[in-house]
Fold:
Amino acid sequence: MIAIELAYWQEAILKLLLGFAIVLPPAGITVYLYLFKMVSFMQSRLGPMEAGPYGSLQLVAEIGKWAQKEDIFPTKADRFVYAAAPFVVLISTFLLVLVVPFGPDLAIIGGENGVDTGIFFALAVSSISVIGILMAGWASASKYSLLGGLRAAGQLIAYELPLVLAVVGVVIQAGTLSMQGIVSAQYEGEIFGFGGFGNPYFLTQFVGFMIFLISVQAELAQAPFDMPVAESELVTGYMTEYSGMRFLLFFIGEFATANVFAFIAATLFLGGWAVPPFLVDMIPGLEIDSWAFNLIGPAVMIVKMLLLTFVVYWVRFTFPRFREDQLQRFAWKVLIPISLVNIAVTGLLKVVF
Amino acid sequence: MTAVNDREQLAYIASQAADARVNLELEAEGMTLNIGPQHPATHGTLRIVLELDGEQVIKADPVMGYMHRGYEKLVEVRTYPQVTTLINRIDWLSGFANEVPFILAAEKLMEIEAPERAKHIRTLLFEMSRIANVTLFLGDMAVQLGAVSPVFYAFRDREYVLNQIEAVTGGRFHPNFDRIGGLKDDLPAGWIEDTKVAIQKIYDFCDEMEDLLVGNEIFQARTRGIGIIPADVALSYGLSGANARASGIDWDLRRDSDVGQGGGLAYDKVDFKVWTHPDGDSFARYWVRLQETREACSIVEQLLDTIPSGPIMAKVPRIIKVAEGEAYVATENPLGEMGYYVISQGGLEPFRVKIRSASFSNMSITPWLLQGTYVPDVITILASLYFILGDIDR
Structure:
């Protein structure tokens, strides 16, 4: 443990910087790795090659391009709401990351005086982005934006339910709402008496894991659930009228939220920042709560996040999109019943074993 | 008894009227949504004015003419050999196929017949431009449905065919290769083998699309039962080509016209099937075009093996003057029936040319077809009808 006493404001600034560090660089990594490169290889092209080695600085160039663009306000737009909407969307991303643990002591709000109901908090604040999207859709004074905003609101609210219900199974199994608690429950868990791998919940909760991934895909409005931004019919939905930095904020919001959800999924289902116990046992002197894991943890999390976001982008660039009625039907008639059954079965097994 | 009945009836009428008033007050004003002229879905400048109730279309009104280039007038001041330069820009994805019906109409008026070899290679290039055109549709339909990757495969594999067309004609899109009485040039050496390789790529592409899209549940959910055109409606709106065949109308000018059967194109030399589908929905239109691409590949393969020897050009006067008269020649182009009605007064230029392009007629069904559909389906229906803006506006 580092024993430095910091004043409250110093700690607050450090935590703010930490928040940016957790959200922005991984977003840059996934955008370059997956959105630029992997998708290009999928589509038999090279992707950006000029800016930096293998186009690795393309994102920097893009940000420079966006920063130079005019910040256009439509004439009939509700100026304040229109200006505020991207920030509201982004706020939900930053609030989400607050409770995600990256090491035994490494969470923006965590540790001993952290929130005991971390996952509950995360699921609650994830819905704030709906407000931002509705604000953007309404305030743009554009028909495409309005249709996109309303579609987004309907969809995000519908998929919030399976998302929450999928997590309930994990919570029952771990017996805690705290993210840190869920990580240690997976680390200490055993599969039929064998504890070498711990008990990552994607094995026992694979139904919940699948539902969680599908709902996240829908929450992020990625294909096949990208009706709100359906570029072939609604141009880009609620983002249609935005330009310059405000569009960039939406862009960051979209991809950073994908990462943060992947972080959360990694924590809930893949064992979080911890590595399987047999790996820890291989290195003498290393314990799961030793300080070294504050350095190893973030790297482990990023690897797990990259695995999960790979699936997100892979699906996104493969499938055609659902119509709204079809995706609502899918949420209410397929996902929610399955997740309810999953909860019942999990509860039953919890009592039996 | 009657009085009671009357009173009941009056009460009923009154309550109905009251309901109607409430509904009138609650009725939201419909929204008018302009799709186009600048819109990602209308690859070109088509504008469709939709009157919406929520997301349901009450009325759809296509507005055409943003890309009108006046070809029918322009060709009147050009000599017959010059006309092909212009008209292969009508359906810009299959340039060569546009030239053929016009040249055939001129040949008919001049009573010239192209040599067998010319007819054969003409058919070959005609089918290859069909492949180049429809391949893009097979990928583009996926984009309109939200799957972005297939269109890149379409662009990639179409290039093999375009390369072969370029190797013969010198132009990828606008060959300007067909001549009255034959063709400009013969095939280059080694071309037949290269083309067989290219055709194999298209076969593979069709299989890939079948795996990626046709079997996909979401694709089927978005296209099956959407935008159904019954056969009689298709006929009454003058639909042609794959759109008509997808509604179960077994009609193909390659097989059913004299021009196709040896009158200018050598379809009598090959064995091919005209695919139809009984459903008439978006899925049927996609499926029929997929099968037609395969059929076109098989036609090209058969033609490649049976090219007759002989001259490539008939005996044609140096200065082409077309005899007085009128002729209408239509062929089965990638988008449907394309015909030219040529009136000649014996001069160097045509007196009047009426171009019957397939997309224009196919487009005319949209007000009927889009009524009552939802906005997301509007896009897929338009995509499955497959029009090209140059072919609508000329």
Summary: Chain B touches chain A at residues 31, 33, 35, 39-41, 55, 142-149, 152-153, 156, 212-213, 216, 218-219, 221-222, 374-379 (CB under 8 Å).
